[in-house]
Specification:
This protein has 399 residues and is an alpha+beta fold. It has a domain at 9-214 and 392-397: 2-Layer Sandwich (Ribosomal Protein S5, domain 2), CATH 3.30.230.10. The chain is 41% helix and 21% strand. The chain contains eleven helices and 14 strands. It has a six-stranded mixed sheet with strand order 6-5-7-4-2-14. The chain has a five-stranded mixed sheet with strand order 1-13-10-12-11. Helix 3 (141-156) crosses helix 5, helix 6 (240-255) packs across helix 8 and helix 7 (266-273) runs antiparallel to helix 8. The longest helix has 25 residues, at 278-302. The protein is globular and about 60 Å long. The N and C termini lie far apart (41 Å). It binds adenosine-5'-diphosphate and magnesium ion. Magnesium ion (MG) binds next to helix 3.
Length: 399
């Protein structure tokens, strides 16, 4: 077995230098600035955003960096260190509409399109991207890519930064993913990247679009949040995500409520839906998961971290058996992390691959990483990668 691989976050200076250098090499001029937007992990509250529920993300120290300059001809031109072989991605903004944009530039041009749809000024740009957010790991590199351009656009257009502006940018970045890329995601990822705060967990409530920042300081209890990228292929575009959403909507209709958020009597809901039907099991996950986020908020406020083991286990089992979005890599990562001494572990993100988070005593980090790596080798899976999930700053200008 190879030594476990830790994916370290770049410093802001390193990320900015890489993006600016790439820009100069690609476009032959200086960028006007460099912006950064973080990936995220959700501590708890999975598949709740599109049910008007609650979730609890933090921003990772790992960011997408973009060096940007306005373009004079309303055409978007992009290059990325992560898809350098593809050459320049180029499209006039007049061509940007649902169903008409392919490739990774859709996250960027889609965000500009979303801002314009929402009557925000948003210039076309040239941009060079470099990133230490692993992609396809369920850590939301896609939303970070949209959000880094959202904050850059707002700054280039002279819009003053504010909490209110960031709420509007979440919507525009979400338009990119929902309407231009065609992924029906629910707003968690973009909110985490734009509305998080350093050393805090963001409690997002999608019923009234509010966000509360709660101090999240595991380190003072000598605990670390270990993120395990399982490397299992993560595909939300194969219809499974949409099927889960459709089941939730059907369940809400049968219960006579606008969304599953409004259900306050689980037993009654199970009598109507049937506890063993697909809709009954999907609804039970959502209803109990929303309750777990409320419990988690209290745990975070009180620092009663000993409760996390049970909450994470209940969440993971609910996603595994009722929502059916785990894969063997996620289950093995959780089980092996706990066996190696983690206090708590669960899958994070949409599932079908992606990452696991584990709360681990600082002195056991290496032991847990070794234990998970050994279990993966034993099961014949590709080696996982590890990140430290220190709650970090939201999207912002770097230079
Ligand atoms: P996740 O958001 O969990 O990382 P997704 O499949 O939603 O996974 O998004 C990954 C996609 O986002 C990539 O396939 C690519 O299109 C785009 N992307 C993310 N980061 C970059 C980057 N640095 N350069 C180019 N494209 C990127
Ligand atoms: Mg994504």
């Amino acid at each position: 077995m190879d030594e476990p691989r830790f994916e370290l976050a770049w410093t802001r200076e390193e990320g900015a230098a890489r993006a600016a250098l790439g820009f100069r090499q690609r476009f032959g001029t200086d960028p006007v600035g460099v912006w950064a937007a973080p990936g995220r992990v959700n501590i708890i509250g999975e598949h709740t955003d599109y049910n008007q529920g609650l979730c609890a993300p933090i921003a990772l120290p790992h960011c997408v960096y973009a060096a940007v300059a306005p373009s004079s001809d309303d055409t978007v031109r992009l290059a990325s260190a992560q898809s350098d072989g593809d050459g320049l991605w180029e499209l006039p903004m007049s061509e940007v509409r649902p169903g008409n944009v392919n490739g990774w530039g859709a996250y960027v041009a889609g965000t500009i399109w979303g801002m314009r749809q929402r009557l925000m000024p948003a210039p076309a740009i040239s941009g060079y991207v470099d990133s230490c957010v692993p992609f396809g790991a369920g850590l939301s590199s896609s939303a970070a890519l949209s959000c880094v351009f959202a904050v850059a656009e707002a700054a280039l257009a002279g819009m003053p930064d504010s909490a209110g502006l960031r709420i509007r940018l979440v919507d525009a970045a979400r338009d990119a993913e929902n309407q231009i890329v065609g992924a029906p995601t629910g707003g968690l990822d973009q909110s985490a990247s734009l509305r998080s705060a350093k050393a805090h967990v963001l409690i997002l409530d999608f019923q009234n679009n509010t966000a509360r920042q709660v101090p999240f300081n595991l380190a003072s209890s000598r605990l670390e949040l270990l993120v395990i990228d399982t490397k299992a292929p993560h595909q939300l575009n194969d219809g499974q995500y949409g099927a889960r959403r459709a089941s939730c909507e059907a369940a809400a209709r049968k219960l006579g409520v606008a969304s599953l958020r409004e259900v306050d009597d689980l037993e009654q809901a199970m009598r109507v839906l049937g506890p063993d039907t697909v809709e009954g099991r999907r609804a039970r996950h959502v209803i109990t998961e929303i309750a777990r986020v409320k419990e988690f908020e209290q745990v975070a406020r009180q620092g009663s971290w000993e409760e996390l083991g049970r909450l994470f286990q209940e969440s993971h089992d609910s996603l595994r058996y009722d929502y059916e979005v785990t894969v063997p890599e996620l289950d093995v990562a959780v089980e092996s992390a706990l066996a190696a001494g983690a206090h708590a572990a669960r899958m994070t993100g949409g599932g079908f691959g992606g990452s696991v988070i584990a709360v681990v005593p600082a002195e056991r980090l290496q032991r847990v990483a070794n234990g998970v790596s050994a279990a993966f080798a034993q099961a014949g899976f590709a080696p996982p990668a590890f990140l430290l999930g220190t709650p970090s700053a939201p999207a912002a200008r770097v230079v």
